[in-house]
């Protein structure tokens, strides 16, 4: 039962510095069933970008219209540009059995919790606040005030951890990755995600591959 | 976070012939944190058995008293003897962080569902009813009528599958075992099972080992 009929939306979030992006990259490499959902943005296309491939490029007016219509699973404004994940394309991918992983900040995860039913929410924890401080400080030659603000942000993000289904402590990348894979595989075995399997079994053969 | 503070009760059930006992044995070998709970029975001790080690040996009168008091997580009568798992010892093991695995039939699992809060219920599925029939028939030189009855029982047991949290198809023993391990590891990462972890993290170091 490693493959479930209905796709899985795996939402992975963490305070910055906890190492979530590395984990997400490894997950995507290990499981080709994960699909990217093409996001919308109001920023101008860069050279080589094609509408509908990297992004759906929209005017701000059109984007704001879609926000009002509740068409986004989540959206955010970053450096003056709007970015969003269209709910419709997420549902289309899940409906045909594809999995989607969201590598997203805590605010984005909060939005997804209210728009995505059946999503699985994983929070990556740093081994300690001290270690998080070391990692944030070690990123470069940033001023102490910037590091202090990042750490303050991270503390606030940590407070959101109880809203997530799973916690994975990233003190050892390999073990954290194994645990993430286990969360994914266990979730595909959930009976509620495989309503047709039981019927197929009672009828005849189960093809679990 | 491979080790959670509160122990886990993993209940594994299946129609007969689905191969659950082999999976449970491998799980116990792989994870020494699983503990056995000593059951109660009304049958007489066999040579070499000691009260409190293999079983708590009770009179039928005492056993029936305990049933009336709701002291069993589950109990059953088998070949005229009563067998039961004392709820108190299960709670003691879980409370000190031990895990318990139940290798139990569908009826026993149904009882555990009402007595064990927070238990994780896994159903092992045969690849198909046809395959189950082959396995049950292949066990020896049993009469056709016995095989037919076993298959009828198995079909009834299969109908209980929707009450379980997870389904694992045992068409490939190694893969089924991996999935069972993933269910176990994922469940230890559940935020609701680690209420202290978050607090420890905000306070200081997290020891996830």
CATH level-3 fold name of the largest domain in chain A:
Rossmann fold
Instruction: Please give the CATH class of the largest domain in chain A.
Output: Alpha Beta
> What is the H/E string of chain A?
EHEEEHEEHEHEHHEHH
Distance between the termini of chain A: 7 Å
Oligomer: homodimer
Strand order of the largest sheet of chain A: 2-7-1-8-9
What order do the helices and strands come in, and which of them pair?
The structure is a homodimer of 209-residue chains.
Chain A: E1 9-13, H1 20-30, E2 34-35, E3 39-41, E4 55-57, H2 60-68, E5 72-78, E6 81-86, H3 87-95, E7 99-103, H4 106-115, E8 120-125, H5 129-137, H6 144-158, E9 166-169, H7 173-188, H8 195-203
Parallel strand pairs in A: 1-7, 1-8, 2-7, 3-4, 8-9
Antiparallel strand pairs in A: 3-6, 5-6
Helix pairs in contact in A: 5-6
């Amino acid at each position: 039962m490693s493959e479930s009929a209905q796709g899985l939306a795996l939402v992975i979030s963490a305070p910055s510095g906890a190492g979530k992006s590395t984990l997400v990259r490894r997950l995507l490499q290990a499981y080709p069933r994960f699909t990217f959902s093409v996001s919308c943005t109001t920023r101008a296309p860069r050279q080589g970008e094609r509408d509908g491939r990297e992004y759906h490029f929209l005017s701000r007016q059109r984007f704001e219209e879609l926000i009002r219509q509740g068409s986004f699973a989540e959206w955010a404004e970053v450096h003056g540009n709007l970015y969003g994940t269209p709910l419709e394309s997420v549902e289309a991918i899940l409906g045909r059995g594809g999995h989607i992983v969201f590598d997203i900040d805590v605010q984005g995860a909060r939005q997804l919790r209210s728009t995505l039913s059946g999503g699985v929410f994983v929070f990556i924890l740093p081994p300690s606040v001290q270690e998080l401080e070391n990692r944030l400080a070690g990123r470069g030659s940033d001023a102490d005030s910037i590091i202090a603000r990042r750490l303050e942000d991270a503390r606030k993000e940590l407070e959101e951890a109880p809203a997530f289904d799973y916690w994975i402590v990233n003190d050892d990348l390999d073990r954290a990755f194994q645990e993430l894979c286990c969360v994914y595989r266990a979730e595909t075995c959930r009976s509620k995600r495989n309503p047709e399997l039981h019927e197929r079994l009672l009828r005849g053969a189960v093809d679990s591959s």
